[in-house]
TrEMBL record:
Signal sequence, renumbered to the chain: none
Gene for this chain: edd
The Dihydroxy-acid/6-phosphogluconate dehydratase C-terminal domain, residue ranges: 416-608
Organism encoding this protein: Bosea lupini
Catalytic activity: 6-phospho-D-gluconate = 2-dehydro-3-deoxy-6-phospho-D-gluconate + H2O
Cofactor stoichiometry and binding remark: Binds 1 [4Fe-4S] cluster.
Family annotation (Gene3D superfamilies): IlvD/EDD C-terminal domain-like (3.50.30.80)
Domain Dihydroxy-acid/6-phosphogluconate dehydratase N-terminal: from-to ranges: 76-388
An example Gene Ontology CC term for this record: cytosol
Cofactor: [4Fe-4S] cluster
Biochemical pathway: Carbohydrate metabolism; Entner-Doudoroff pathway
UniProt entry keywords in alphabetical sequence: 4Fe-4S, Carbohydrate metabolism, Gluconate utilization, Iron, Iron-sulfur, Lyase, Metal-binding
Domain of life per record: Bacteria
The name this protein goes by in its record: Phosphogluconate dehydratase
Function recorded in the entry: Catalyzes the dehydration of 6-phospho-D-gluconate to 2-dehydro-3-deoxy-6-phospho-D-gluconate.
Length: 614
């Protein structure tokens, strides 16, 4: 593949990064594609199944669907769903299968729910034992997706999932059946409630003891108030951006609210596209070929340009590996300087994703990045027209049918969304840190410039609860770098540590220099406190973070891209890594079932996955 030849306007750095990914991945990618081609060459397998196998596959279908499947003249579409009615983002999916079945029948085929995958809510498990299963749930979802498709009676698949680990898990699973076309169907964000800024303010007041639990619960309930994705720009909504910019959604589908006529029309249209791109027709688009190196580079650029979730420095790596493509944190780092930050969405600003969508949304972002030569224009998409089609937006025609119009050419609100000529900042929202403490990522898009460098004494903790105890006891009175370790994937599944943010934010607001260094995660809620996260090697692997002691001077420098302990080297080499009793994190709430995951999981910079790297 020669990227520059395909796009003469492509930014040189984007082209260079893409070319080196192609070279680095060559053998593994070719091996993967050989498998896709072999499966595709065999053709749809349904008609070669034994009679008993086939009969089992359509036994519960209605007469029309049964006749269609028996004759084998139309496509059979798999629905893989993450529906449950406990997650607000996934509750709207309850009625999607019937809409999809009807659309499939109208297109001359059949749709069946092939399987369900688990979908946990990080918002419910924050600070609880269940959060230690969160990251591993991504790989469970990938496994469940593979099981769902293993009956080999399908010609394409649609995937119903939105939230944090669910979309990456579905993508990994879909790529294990890379010869099948795949279309992802979102359900959209909930309507705007209490502003994210006000919600954050009440959380800090609660941390200081200035409001009670009833006041906090009221604020949270007004924020998370109905069906749909949470409206801040965390991992769930970053997933939607990634799916659209990588061509797995229909244009403009990501941020249309649930339970609206436009959302239903988009669901029907997505089904029609899935039916149109099977091997039975003339537009065959297997997902394993579609998601190539260029698509993943587009995903990384989108992540930088929108200030998206830090979780995707792991998820994109793991997703790419499933397609035989090897991404590294250096790829993210080298794209950051040439990618401008185009959005201010909470926690990087006051607006939510509904405001972003109204201001021009994904169509405007893609138009601007294409115009700046920062995206590969000629990639494959489920629509089949390259990324130029993704500057359009969906609307309902007067007769209620789905129509498309040119998207915004100017921002509707420059406090939320800007073009490449006048971005919020000239570089992306994520920075790679390296140094004698290992490698880490930091999200700078929400941090005031005067806090991009913090040098302060370490306070070491082995849990976020221990830090909260120290805060409530009034022990944290000076500048500090809070080191929260033994939170990596091998230690306890790498939970998100959101409960650190209110107390650290309070300390920062009191005028202290504050930063966080951890081998755990913060995700899209990384906010105004500088946080070096995903530190690797992790403490449980004897990484240098395990050598830090209270009082050590630590420097977190997002300008130079360094993470260092300013300790006498002679003293440093004499130290032995600290140890922690991790047994309490390995029992209860199902955690004992995940021992195999903890023992085999890879490092954060290789995707923190049990599936290995190409």
């Amino acid at each position: 593949m020669t990227t520059q030849a395909n796009n003469s306007l492509l930014n040189a750095r984007v082209g260079e990064v893409t070319e080196r990914i192609v070279r680095r991945s060559h053998d593994a990618r070719q091996h993967y594609l050989d498998g896709v081609e072999a499966a595709a060459a065999a053709g749809p397998r349904r008609q070669r199944l034994g009679c008993a196998n086939q009969a089992h596959g359509f036994a519960a279908c209605g007469p029309g669907d049964k006749a269609m499947l028996r004759a084998g003249v139309g496509a059979n579409l798999a629905i893989v769903t993450a529906y449950n009615d406990m997650l607000s983002a996934h509750q709207p999916y309850e009625n999607f299968p019937e809409v999809i079945r009807a659309a499939a029948r109208a297109a001359g085929g059949v749709a069946q729910v092939a399987g369900g995958v688990p979908a946990m809510c990080d918002g419910i498990t924050q600070g609880e034992a269940g959060m230690e299963l969160s990251l591993f749930s991504r790989d469970v979802i990938a496994l469940a997706t593979a099981v769902s498709l293993s009956h080999q009676t399908f010609d394409a698949a649609v995937f119903l999932g939105i939230c944090d680990k669910i979309v990456p898990g579905l993508v990994i699973g879909a790529l294990s059946f890379g010869h099948l076309p795949a279309v992802f169907i979102p359900a959209g964000p909930m309507t705007s409630g209490l502003s994210n800024d006000e919600k954050s303010r009440v959380r800090q007041l609660f941390a200081e003891g200035k409001v009670d639990r009833d006041a906090l619960l009221e604020a949270e309930s007004r924020s998370y108030h109905g069906p749909g994705t949470c409206t801040f720009y965390g991992t769930a909504n970053t997933n939607q951006m990634v799916m659209e910019i990588m061509g797995l959604h229909l244009p403009g589908a990501s941020f249309v609210n649930p339970n609206t006529p436009l959302r239903e029309a988009l669901t029907k249209a997505a089904t029609e596209r899935a039916m149109a791109i099977t091997a039975l027709g003339n537009e065959y688009k297997p997902v394993g070929r579609m998601l190539d190196e260029r698509a993943f580079v587009n995903g990384m650029v989108g992540l930088h340009a929108t200030g998206g979730s830090t979780n995707h420095t792991m998820h994109l790596v793991a997703m790419a590996a499933a397609a035989g493509i090897r991404l590294t944190w250096d790829d993210f780092s080298d794209l950051a300087p040439v990618t401008p930050l185009l959005t201010r969405i909470y926690p990087n600003g006051k607006a939510d994703v509904n405001h972003f969508h109204a201001a021009g949304g994904m169509g405007f972002v893609i138009r601007e990045l294409l115009g700046g030569g920062l995206l590969h224009r000629d990639v494959e998409t489920v629509l089949g027209q390259g990324l130029d089609a993704y500057v359009r937006e969906p609307v309902l025609a007067p007769d209620g049918s789905l129509a498309w119009r040119d998207g915004a050419v100017a921002s509707g609100d420059e406090t939320v969304l800007r073009g490449v000529a006048a971005p919020f900042q000239p570089t992306g929202g994520l920075t790679l840190l390296t140094g004698d403490l290992g490698r880490a990522v930091i999200k700078t898009s929400a941090i005031a410039k005067e806090r991009h460098v913090v040098e302060a004494p370490a306070r070491v903790f082995h849990s976020q609860e221990a830090l909260q105890v120290a805060f409530k006891a009034g022990e944290l009175t000076g500048d500090l770098v809070a080191v929260v370790r033994f939170q990596g994937p091998r230690a306890n599944g790498m939970p998100e540590l959101h409960k650190l943010m209110p107390p650290l934010g309070v300390l920062q607001d009191r005028g202290l220099k504050v930063a966080l260094v951890t081998d755990g995660r913060l995700s899209g809620a990384s906010g105004k406190v500088p946080a070096a996260i995903h530190v690797t090697p992790e403490a449980a692997n004897g990484g240098p973070i395990a050598l830090i002691r209270d009082g050590d001077l630590i420097r977190v420098d997002a300008v130079a891209g360094t993470l260092t302990a300013l300790v006498d080297p002679r003293e440093w080499v004499r130290r032995t890594p600290a140890e922690a009793d991790l047994a309490p994190s390995h029992r209860g709430v199902g955690r004992e079932l995940f021992e195999a995951f903890r023992s085999s999981v890879g490092t954060a910079d290789t995707g923190a996955t049990i599936f290995g790297t190409p």
